[in-house]
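Reproducibility note. Readers wishing to regenerate the assembly model reported in the main text can use the exact inputs given here. Chain order matters: entities are listed in the order in which they were concatenated for prediction.
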Amino acid sequence: MSLGQMFASGLSAVWGGGTMFLMVVVAIILGTIFGALPGVSATMAVALGLTFTYTMGPVPAIVFLVAIYCSSITGGSITAILFKIPGVPSSAPTTFDGYPMAQRGEAGKALGVALIASAIGGLFSALVMFLLSEPLAKAALAFGQGDLFAITFLGLSILVVLDTDHILTTIISGLLGLLLACIGQDPMAGVARLTFGQVNLLSGMEMIPVLIGLFAVTEVFKQTNAKKRLSAEDGVGNKGKVNTKMPSMKELWSIKWVLLRCSIVGTVVGILPGAGATIASFMCYTMENKLSKYPEKFGTGIIDGIAASESANNAATGGAMVPLLCLGIPGGNAAAVMASALALKGVQMGPLLLTNQPEYLSATFITMIITNILMVIVAIGIAKVFAQILAIPYYYLGPIILLLATIGSYSEGNFVGVKVMVIAGIFGIIVKYMHLNSAAIVLGLVLGGMCEQHFSLAFQGAHIVTQPMNFGDIMQKIFGGLFGTPIAAIVMTACILMLLSPIYMPLLKKAKKK
Amino acid sequence: MFELICNALLFVFLGFTYFTHVIEAKIPKSYLKNPNVLHPSAWPKAIIILLMICIVINIYKIIKKNKGNPEFGFSAFVKNSKEFFKSKMFLGMLILIAAAFILEPLGFVVTAALTMFAYGILLGEKKIWRIALISVGVALLMHILFSGLLNVTLPRGTVPFLRNFALFLENLF
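Running the prediction on these inputs yields the following structure tokens for the assembly.
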């Protein structure tokens, strides 16, 4: 099937006489609301959406689920901006600039930028996938464990540029996150580590409660002590109403390169099996910070930061559909639920999908394109309603945030999640007093497990020995595993350069001044 | 001073962890026999060592930075600690800790209502009846929305009548 035929078949499947189109709109509304509710992750949104599709045929079901999947991930940015509750780890960088903007009374603008950036990122990746899914899938398959470790390590290397004024404490924070990620069974032998005898910790540190605790609960604690609290009156000239003014065309035009760069990086990172949206959003946020003419404004509430994070994570989420559909490898939990939902509808994911069921592939990609276009209109309407929540006085809003945080942490499965959330909230205050960096802790925690697993597999596969290893063997294994392929060698060199940048950059600047 | 104490405690804790809690179960012999695999303790131990080195440097930096600073003394630390334990933030922490413990026996509805009521007053709401009514309303609404409509599992409590009430709310829709 040619590209033109695929496009036409996908479009006719999605249009379907108007009924399907309406269904996409309904799915976007549901997905955005589900995504915006703490505790209802993208994974759960797809699972909830599945119940609507039991009586549908395969193509309508795919269209409905894909629309829910895309819009629920976008909806996650709403809570990240309004309450500092990142629904998914990849929304964590959105809080850095989104929440300060909401505090300033610019919630509408922050949400508008987030939604438009998400749509552009998603649209870009959907178009790329539509045009290049086959060669991209083959290229992604060529990535070995060493290459994947290098990519994940690149995500970790951005620690040194996350806060250049406090490099040491940022590195300590990142290492603490990495250590937290080691709690539970090790990925290779399944041996319990760092559990201190607690059975509940065997399955590892639950990520969502830690995220919610470190960001949302800590923020409520800080506001509890604050003399002047977050309030709707902060909106400039708004007389008690939250400013729901959307970003102007001029403002959006000013971030065009941010959107383009982050959409490209997000798509590339998303296509790599197992890499994911979190690496993409952190990587792009830092990249834009470095490239910006006003890096000091990042973290204080500027639209560039939101655009970088949101366009990257949505592009990566879209990009993740390539390994899912063309290789049958789900990139994350939500993609795994999507995979099982699609399999339930008879979609045979893998290399044969393009030859055996091309209509399913085209329907998926066209739905993603249409969803991302429609989402801008539909989700902005929803976001405007959500932005009004900030008009509630803080003595009601604060406790409501805590309750939503509790639901979000408990929905992970058990009471341990809630306790972890409370501990993480208190830890967040200690982190503040110790001048550590919460974002770096989260980055280490999210990427730690992935990093160790890829490293262990790369180590195992390189320089096979038959006798106990000596020092030379260990070195050969490490360097063979990490620098064994051209991709790994290039990416690892970039990582080393980035890690050493705090040492050589001041020297270079000094030399330049002279 | 607080920063210094925390760093020192973290250093001691990491040292203790390095020697006692990195590996907490027997490693399968079959795994150990394979010379090509990475030992399960290698990754966490490497991280701990790096962390301890960074913390030592950080402690040195903190001491150097605060040399001669009167606020860095032990008496200032005691004074700040007393203020912290009297602060609203500390009370907020206590409320949330209590909520985490009563969640299992009392369930979401009662815990949510009590937490919202206590925290609302802590944050400055003076109209007791209004916050009480809103707390109960929000708790009921959230349970119905998440548990009844969205199938998000929420704790129902172990006390029989509270459990039955939660089930009643879930089956309203």
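We highlight two features of this model. The longest helix of chain A spans residues 107-141. DSSP finds 23 helices and two strands in chain A.
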